[in-house]
Amino acid sequence: MRPLPPSDCPLPEKTALENVPDRYSIYNEKEKNPEESINILEKSYGGEETSRSTLANGAWKQDSLLHQNPAATAHTKETETYRKKVAEQTYFCKQLAKRKWQLYKNYCGETVALFKNKVFSALFIAIFLFDVGGFPPSLLMEDVARSSNLKEEEFIMPLISIIGIMTAVGKLLLGILADFKWINTLYLYIATLILMGLALCAIPFAKTYVTLAILSGTLGFLTGNWSIFPYVTTKTVGIEKLAHAYGILMFFAGLGNSLGPPIVGWFYDWTQTYDIAFFFSGFCVLLGGFILLLASLPPWETRNKQLPKPAPAAFVYKVASNV
């Protein structure tokens, strides 16, 4: 952090910072505010006046030093150059930190604006609960089959393979359904959540391989709703905010994937059966689906405002004749 000792090697013409083209620099000189420029000019003008007075007062000292010790003069110039570069780089770092802070501030503001959208908030809860409850079946279906005392000879195909194949089929078919204009993709996604929750709750009642295979295929097919999730997010927040919103949702989806299997394993360690574990998983997915459904339905006040008001009843009065 101290100035290097003077050397006989010539100084480089330009520093690495000065050699960077303007298009690669993060801070652009044109983006300075007029007030900042005025303050900088005033400071520089004041610094020049101070330096001039200092030079006038100590001119005889510098003249004597020039004639007495040229090495000291060179060292003084290098020190002044070093201080100038440090001042320039410090100013650059301050402007860079100010710009980054503004970016973080804007990001936080946009995040708060996203959560003010009730459908996005419900989608955030639904995707978290879906990954808490929907991810464990792909890991534990084989253990569920063994706990039901099924013989290995009955296993025509591994249950995990059935889930994987049907997931691919579900992604394809659900993506095709989302392309139809007469299908509301958000309601389609909600339907997959509710059906998946019911299938998870039905797993404890399955005692044969065929039943478990059917439920595994159903779960795999409904897990294919990942193919329509980006489209649902786009319809909820718009294409401009898709990257921001999708990143937040994927973070909490990953958090749900991390929490789901340990929670289900804890239920098994507690009860020595998978029944309560899959009831819990099904409840989580169902809860997320119903929350998203309630948030996506138009409120009753809006419906009442849109309904045409009945015309006021007209009454005809006749003057009674005088008898």
From TrEMBL:
SUPFAM superfamilies: MFS general substrate transporter
Predominant place of localization: membrane
InterPro entries with a match to the protein in the record: MFS (IPR011701), MFS_trans_sf (IPR036259), Proton-linked_MCT (IPR050327)
Highest taxon listed in the record's lineage: Eukaryota
GO annotations of cellular component type: plasma membrane
GO MF entries: monocarboxylic acid transmembrane transporter activity
Compartments where found: Cell membrane
Topology in membrane: Multi-pass membrane protein
UniProt entry keywords in alphabetical sequence: Cell membrane, Membrane, Transmembrane, Transmembrane helix
Database matches in Pfam families: MFS_1
Function field: Extracellular pH-and Na(+)-sensitive low-affinity creatine transporter. Also functions as a pH-independent carnitine efflux transporter.
Family the UniProt entry places it in: Belongs to the major facilitator superfamily. Monocarboxylate porter (TC 2.A.1.13) family.
Name of the protein described by the UniProt record: Monocarboxylate transporter 9
Taxonomic lineage of the native organism: Eukaryota, Metazoa, Chordata, Craniata, Vertebrata
